[in-house]
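Response regulator: structure tokens wanted.
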Amino acid sequence: MHSQTSTLGRVLVIEDDPVVAMVLEDVLQKLKLEVIVDLSLANALTEIESGEFDAVLLDMELRGESARPALLAMMAQNVPFVVISGSDQSALVAEFPQLCVLMKPVSSAELQRIVRSLLRHA
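Answer:
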């Protein structure tokens, strides 16, 4: 899924659930952002290597696969990102205390606030 709405910023959404991805995409488009959605880890890693985005929303579990390689790649490239998860990520936060983790479901207002913050640090 690719959608272009403006040049105010590009946000990569890495989420394996198409319904959740569409909701996230809709919320971000309301902020006049270009949204790139990847439903798989392989596609996400390719996008991350391109480095052509300003922030990332990352689900840590993609079709039963850990998104840890994507997380490490973003950290190595200093890409602003937030982890969005429906499962406990306390072990991940213990390992990487600087992580911002949002638990699903995330309100539109909270998501917009976090993305605005990420874009300010891009």
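The mean pLDDT is 90. The chain has one domain: 2-120.

Cheers.
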